[in-house]
């Protein structure tokens, strides 16, 4: 058995996304000893900071600094490291240099799984764009001719889990994984509280977690209070069905 630490990579457009949609998975796997790395493309300074922009005299730089501090605090609570690309939001302005860095991160972290946005989201153009970027980097990272070295490429492209969008029925989101996050719900809720700029979403995403927990318990036959829903992009290759 390998003693190498397992890892997970989260690729997200805005700070709130990794907390509302994947905070339980991040906290759970960090608790299990995984290295959890979050790549946050923007600070959500334009479109994801409603509370901040209600403050008199708010500036773009103040908003970005505040959202960065919130995201760093939330990531620390969840047990993850975080890296920002400062791509801007609404829309994301993703550069070649950012793509190059993201590919390097895939190879460096060599994640067992990737969590990112749904491939469709008619309500937010940043989300499917971030998902497409995450998948593009995942593919290029396994290309032997991309930054070839003497040891070759040791990275293996992992499964990609789409986390739940805000209005799943409009995004063709059909989850095939419900993760039991009951044991880390308190940690996720503490991370919520580090995002006062989006206070209006706290209760909504608690209700989502309770609904998914009920569905998870019904599908598994095991008690589950809080859950997170995911949809895989690629088929899983297995030796037996169950």
Structure, briefly:
The protein has 242 residues and is an alpha/beta fold. It has helices spanning 15-31, 60-78, 96-109, 126-140, 185-192, 202-220, and strands at 7-12, 35-40, 81-84, 113-116, 159-163, 177-180, 227-232. The longest helix has 19 residues, at 60-78.
Report on this model:
The protein is of the alpha/beta class. It has helices spanning 15-31, 60-78, 96-109, 126-140, 185-192, 202-220, and strands at 7-12, 35-40, 81-84, 113-116, 159-163, 177-180, 227-232. The protein contains 6 helices and 7 strands, in the order βαβαβαβαββααβ. Strands 3-2-1-4-5-7-6 form a 7-stranded mixed β-sheet, with helices on both faces. The mean pLDDT is 96.
**Class of secondary structure makeup:** alpha/beta
Number of helices: 6
Assembly state (oligomeric): single chain
Helix content: 25-40%
Strand neighbour order, sheet with most strands: 3-2-1-4-5-7-6
The low-confidence runs, each spanning 5 or more residues with pLDDT under 50, are none
Reading the helices and strands in chain order gives EHEHEHEHEEHHE
Radius of gyration: 18 Å
Report, as a whole number of angstroms, the end-to-end distance: 23 Å
Strand content: 5-15%
Largest sheet: 7 strands, mixed
Average residue pLDDT: 96
| Cα shape | globular
In total, how many beta strands? 7
């Amino acid at each position: 058995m390998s003693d190498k630490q397992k890892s997970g990579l989260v690729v997200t457009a805005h700070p709130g996304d990794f907390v509302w949609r994947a905070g339980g998975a991040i906290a759970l796997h960090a608790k299990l000893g995984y290295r959890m790395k979050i790549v946050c493309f923007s600070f959500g300074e334009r479109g994801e900071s409603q509370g901040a922009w209600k403050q008199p005299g708010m500036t773009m730089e103040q908003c970005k600094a505040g959202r960065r501090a919130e995201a760093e605090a939330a990531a620390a609570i969840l047990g993850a490291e975080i890296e920002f690309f400062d791509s801007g939001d609404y829309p994301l302005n993703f550069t070649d240099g950012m793509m190059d860095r993201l590919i390097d991160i895939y190879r460096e972290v060599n994640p067992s799984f990737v969590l990112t946005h749904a491939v469709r989201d008619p309500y937010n153009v940043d989300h499917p764009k971030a998902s497409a970027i995450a998948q593009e980097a995942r593919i290029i990272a396994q290309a032997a001719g991309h930054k070839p070295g003497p040891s070759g490429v040791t990275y293996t492209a992992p499964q990609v889990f789409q986390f739940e969008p805000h209005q799943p029925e409009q995004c063709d989101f059909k989850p095939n994984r419900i993760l039991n996050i009951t044991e880390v719900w308190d940690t996720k809720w503490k991370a919520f509280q580090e995002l006062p700029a989006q206070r209006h979403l706290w209760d909504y995403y608690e209700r989502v977690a309770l609904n998914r927990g009920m569905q998870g318990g019904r599908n598994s036959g095991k008690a589950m209070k809080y859950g997170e829903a995911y949809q895989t992009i690629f088929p899983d290759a297995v030796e037996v069905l169950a």
